[in-house]
Design brief:
The chain is mostly helical. It is built from six helices and no strands.
Length: 161
């Protein structure tokens, strides 16, 4: 039954299209004029105009896409630079706040120093810095014409003696 109904539908559709086409040709519908021989759009001499219009459209849309790409790229670069600057600024402000807090609160400063000393790399770096500072101070004092000063006796605890 389905195949018979489908076949009848197809045949009736074909007849309706044929009848509609014949009626349109007889009555002179504007769509019919589009397919007539004297249509300027279908004239082979105007083929280059169609290609020129298509090329213009392609170039125009390409310019639009390139312009959008440039704007998006520029915006991305601007935001990347802005976030980089704001990140550096935020780090500087946080460091300043940290040092201000350490100046105001001695228990926080003590805890901060203990935490820094717990790390071996930081402890070694602090030791090197203090050692370099002590050596500079010794060189400065001995270069002023004073005799060489032996600090070893002053560094020992007096409780041990």
């Amino acid at each position: 039954m389905n195949t018979l109904f489908g076949t009848v539908n197809l045949f009736v559709g074909f007849l309706a299209g044929l009848l509609g086409g014949v009626l349109v040709m007889l009555l002179g519908h504007p769509i019919v004029e589009l397919f007539q021989q004297n249509n300027a759009l279908l004239n082979p001499n105007n083929g280059s105009d169609v290609i020129a219009i298509a090329n213009t459209y392609i170039v125009f849309t390409t310019f639009i896409f390139v312009l959008i790409t440039i704007i998006v790229t520029g915006t991305g670069i601007y935001f990347a630079k802005w976030f980089g600057i704001s990140k550096e600024k935020e780090i500087r402000e946080n460091m300043r706040d940290l040092f201000e807090s350490l100046d105001k609160d001695s228990t926080l400063a003590d805890r901060f120093v203990r935490e820094l000393s717990a790390h071996e790399v930081i402890s070694d770096k602090l030791h090197q810095l203090v050692q370099a500072r002590v050596e500079d101070e010794i060189k400065l004092r001995t270069s002023e014409g004073e005799e060489k000063v032996d600090f070893s006796s002053k560094l020992s605890n007096e409780d041990e003696v």
